[in-house]
Amino acid sequence: MDFCGPILDVVTRVWDCTAKHARYIMDLQENMESLKNAMEELKNVHGDVKRRVEREEQRQMRRTNEVDGWLHTVLAMEIQVNQILEEGDQEIQNKCHGTCCPKNCWSSYKLGKKASKNLGTVTELRNKGRFEVVADSLPQAPVDERPMKKTVGLDLMYKDVCRCIQDEKLGIIGLYGMGGAGKTTLMTKVNNEFIKASKDFEIAIWVVVSRPTNLGKVQEVILNKLDIPNDRWRNRTEDEKAVEIFNVLKAKRFVLLLDDVWDQIDLQMLGVPSPNSQNKSKVILTTRSLDVCRRMEAQRSIEVECLTKEEAINLFKEKVGETTLNSHPEIPQLAEIAAEECKGLPLALVTIGRAMAGKNTPQEWERAIQILKTYPSKLSGMGDHVFPILKFSYDNLPIDTMKACFLYLAIFPEDHEIFSLDLIFRWIGEGFLDECDTIDEAFNQGHDIIEHLKTACLFQSGNDYEMVKMHDVIRDMALWLATAYIGNNNKVVVEEKAIVEAYQVSKWKEAQTISLRTKRLEEFTVPWNFPNLSTLIFYGGYLKTFPSGFFHFMPIIKVLDLSGTRITELPIGIGKLVTLEYLNLSETRLRKLSMELKTLKRIRVLLLDDMCHLQMVSKEVISNLSMMKVFALVFNESLKGEKASQSSSTEKEEPKYSRENSQALNLWKNNDALLEELEGLEHINWVCFQIEGALSVQKFLSSQKLKNVMRNLILRNLDGMTFLQFPRMPHLLGLTMDRCEELQEIKVDQEKGRGQGFVADNYITNSNFWCLRFVRIAELPKLLDLTWLIYVPNLENLSVRHCESMEEVIGDANGVPENLGIFSRLEDLNLEDLPNLRSISRRALPFPSLTELLVRRCPNLRKLPLDSNSARNSLKTIDVEQHWWKGLQWEDDTIRLTFTPYLRKQLGKSVHT
Q: CA separation (Å) from 898 to 87, 383, 846, 866?
C-alpha cells in the first residue's frame, strides 16, 4: 500500500491545480465586476491627485517625479483594464446556449487569469495614490523678466551700462539721478535685454530696497532665488542667514540688482560676496544720491540724465496719443511747448502727457500750459503723483537746515543760476547757518550743504562750476512744499509781472518771502503792510522806483535784495528796516549810500559789487554797521565800457567824493578812509575790496586785521610803485592786479624762522597763501615774472594778459625741491598777449589737475613745460593758434603726439590738420 500515497498526492495536486485554473473560467464574470469596481475607485483617486497637482502647479510648484509616474501608470492601466473588460463582456456573451460553459475554455481561462492579475495591480495602484506631497517648489529661472514699456532716450546709457558689466574690473556699478529720471527703467532694460541674454551669469537677483533700509527683508528676497532649505533658514538670525546666502552665492556668478537705494548697504552683513574680477559677479544699484554710490564703493557711477529736447517731445507725444495730436492742427506745436516745461524729466512727461490725452481743443492746451507755468501742482497728476515721488529726496535730507537751504533756491526764477558764494551769503543773512561759530565755519557748512544737495540730485551745477541751479520740476516741487503742501499758498510769493497792481499786493499780507520781477509797483492809497515778511527779493534790471511808504511796515524783515534793479537812489524808508541782516545793492545805479543806512545796525552782509555809478558813501555809514561780518565792494572791468557810454558825467562829478568833501568817503582812488572804517568793525571777517592808489595799499599792508579778513583783493592803478611785497594773507581766495604801469617786481614776505630757500616739510602748512585759488594779472607792462606763485600751493586758475615785459611765468626756482608740487592743483592756465614770454617753467611740470590750457599771441614762447606724464588724467582742451602750435619745440615727437588730440578745433578745422 506504500505506493498508493505518492499516487494520491499527485492526484491531489493535479486536482488542486485543475480546480484553480477552473476558477478563472467559472468566476470570470465576478472577476470582471471586481476589476471594473476597482478601476472606478482608482480613477477617483487619480482625479483627486490630479486636481491637487494642478492646484500646486498654479502656485508655481512642480509635480514630483513619483506622482508624475503614478499618474501616467494609472492612465496606461485604465486603457489596459478597459480592453480586458471589453473582451470579458464578449466572452461572457459567447457561452454555449442553455449552459454556463464557455465555447472556448482556453480563451476564457486566459482572460480570467488576466483579470485576476490586473485586479491586484489596480488595487496596489489605488493604495499607492495616497500621497502626502504631490509637488515641490519650482526652481527659479536664472533671470526673471520684469514688466517694461517701450523706452525713449536710454539707448546710449544702456550701452554704457552694458560695457561696464562686461568690464571685469568693475564689480559695483551705480546708476544715480533725480527722482523720475528713469533709473529703474534703465536697470529693467539691462535686466531684460542684456543680463537675460548673457551666458556670463548663473543667476540674477532683483531687490527693491526703498526706505528705510531693512537688511532682513532684502535677505528674504534673495532667499526666494536660492535653494536654501527651510530648516536652515527659519528662526535664524540675520548673521546666520548671511552665512547661508554667502555659501550659495560664493559658488555662483551672480548679478545683484538693488533698486531704489537710499543708504549704504553692507554687502558682507547681507551675505553677498564682494564682486570682483575673480568671481566675475556684479552689483548694480539705482539711487538718487551720488553719495550713496560712493559709500557703496561703486567703481563706476553713471548719472541718468534727463532727456534731450527731441527725446522729451517724442515721449510726451507718445503718451498724448495720435488721436489727440491729430484733433487740431495747432495741438502738436502746443504739445511741444508743454513738453518743454517738463525739462526732459520722464516722470513729468509721462504724467502730463497722459493727463493731456483727450484734450482736443487748443483752448484746453493753452489753459493747461498756463497752469503748468504758474501753478503746476494744480495740473492733473502733478500734485498727487509727481511731486510726492520727488518729495522723497527732500524727506531724506539729514537735517532741517539743509531742507531750508534747499527750499530757498526755489524763490529764484526758472533756470536761474546763482554763484555758490552768493547763495551762502543769503543763507547767512537768513540765519540758516547761525549755529556756526565763525564765518569760515558757516562757509564750510554752506559748501557742504551745496555739495550734498548736488549729490542728492536736488541741485545742479550751472554753466560755471561755481554756480548752482535747480531743475525746473524740482523747483516746482519745492514751491509746492513751501505753499500748497502746507495749505498756505501765500506764504511764499514768486511772481513775474510787468506791473504789480495794488489789489495783488493786498493778497500778500501773510507772505514770509516775496520774490518779484517787475518794471513798476503801483502806488498804494494806504501804507503797505507786511507784518510777516522776512525776505524780499527784486530780480531783473527793470524796477526804477518804489512807491512812497513801501518799506513803512516790515517789522521782521531780515533779507532785502535789490541787486540788478535800476534804482538811482535808496528807497525812502529803508532806514526803518532795523531788523535787516542782509542787504544786496550790487549792480544797481545808486550814486550815493546815504546816512539813512546808519540805522541798520543788525546788518551782517552788505554787498555793493559792480555799482559802476556809485560815487559817494557817507562818512560813518560803514563804521555804524557794527554787526557786519561780510562786506563786498569790487568793480567788474567788463562794466567799464558801460559806465563810460552811459554817462560822461562821472569825471564832472568826481569832486563829490574827493577828499575835499568832508561828508563823503573816497571809493576808488586812495580809498584809505573807507579801509579805516572797515578796520574798526569788531565782527568783520569777510572783505572783498578794490584798492586803488599807493596810499591805500600802504594802509592795507599796515593793517593785520584787514590782511586777515581779505578774501578777494583787487589792486589797480598803483601809480609810482615799482616793487610790491605781499604779506601773509591766510584767507585770501582771489587776487586781481591790473593797470599798474610801473610795477616791475612782486615778492612774498617770508615768515620769520623759515630761513632761506624752501623747507619742503612745512611748505604747504606754512604757505602765506594757503587759500588762494584765483590769480588774474593784466596790463602790468613792466612786470618780469610771477615766480612768487610757487608760494601758492592751491592755485586753481591763473590768467595773465597784456604784460609786455614778462619773459617767464616761473623764473629761477633753484633750491625748490622737484616734489614741491608747483601748480599741482592748477586747472586753468590762460596766457594772452605776452609778446616777450619765453618760458612758463624752466623744467617740465606734472600738472596733475590741469584741464584747460589757453595760449594766444605769445610768439616767443617756443616750448611748453610738458612731458609725456604731464596732465595725464585731467587735460580736456588746449586752445592755441594753429601756426604757433606747429612751431613748438618738443623733447621728442612722442610728447607732441600725446597732446595733439586735445587741441580745440578752430573755424571747422583741427589745429593739427
A: 96, 54, 14, 10
CA–CA dist 632, 674 (Å, integer): 12
Q: Where are the alpha helices (DSSP H) in 665-759?
A: 672-679, 694-701, 704-709
pLDDT value for 892: 87
Q: How far is CA 408 from the centre of its chain?
A: 19
Please list the alpha-helical segments (H only) found in 288-374.
Answer: 290-295, 309-320, 322-325, 331-341, 346-356, 362-374
Phi and psi torsions of 247, nearest 5°: -65, -25
Phi, psi angles (nearest 5°) of residue 582: -135, 125
Distance CA 46, CA 125 (A): 10
- Ranges in the chain, pLDDT < 70: 1-29, 88-112, 138-140, 522-527, 540-541, 636-670, 750-766, 813-820, 905-913
Please give the full DSSP string across 620-654, using - where no structure is assigned.
THHHH-TT--EEEE---GGGHHHHHHH-S-HHHHG
Strand ranges inside 539-594, DSSP E: 559-561, 582-584, 592-593
- Classify 176 as helix, strand or coil: strand
So what's the pLDDT on residue 313? 93
Query: Is-cis flag, bond preceding 846, omega within 30?
Result: no
3-state secondary structure (DSSP) of residue 735: strand
Give pLDDT, residue 627. Answer: 94
Local structure of 390: helix, strand or coil: helix
Amino acid in the structure at residue 138: L
Question: How confident is the model at residue 629, as a pLDDT?
Answer: 94
pLDDT at 124: 84
Contacts of residue 249, Cβ cutoff 8 Å, sequence gap at least 6: 226, 271, 272, 273, 281
> For residue 190, which phi and psi values (nearest 5 degrees)?
-65, -45
Dmax over CA atoms of the chain, in Å, equals 172
Look at residues 640, 695, 704, 652 and name the one whose alpha carbon lies nearest to residue 671.
695
Residues 246, 238: Cα–Cα separation, whole Å: 12
CB-count burial class (<10 Å; 0-12, 13-18, 19+) for 504: middle
What backbone phi and psi angles, to 5 degrees, belong to 286? -115, 140
User: Where does 94-142 have alpha helices with state H?
Assistant: 105-128
Residue bearing cell 532741517: 400
- Residue 873: burial class (beta carbons within 10 Å; 0-12, 13-18, 19+): exposed
Q: At what angle do helices 400-408 and 472-482 cross, to 10 degrees?
A: 120
Say which DSSP state 183 is in: H
Nearest to 125 by CA among 65, 37, 38, 50: 38
Q: Which residues contact 236 (CB under 8 A, 6 or more apart)?
A: 244
Residues 6 or more apart from 280 whose CB is under 8 A from it? 168, 200, 253
With a CB cutoff of 8 Å and minimum separation 6, the contacts of 901 are: none
Helix (H) / strand (E) containing 157:
helix 155-166
pLDDT confidence of residue 814: 62
Strand-strand pairing, 467-469 and 418-419: antiparallel
Tell me the C-alpha distance between 818 and 214, whole Å.
Answer: 52
Interacting residues of 158 by C-beta distance below 8 A, sequence separation 6+: 151, 186, 189, 190, 193, 194
* Rounded (10°) angle between helices 28-58 and 4-26: 60
pLDDT at 267: 93
What local confidence, expressed as pLDDT, does residue 21 receive?
A: 53
Name the residue with cell 609786455.
804
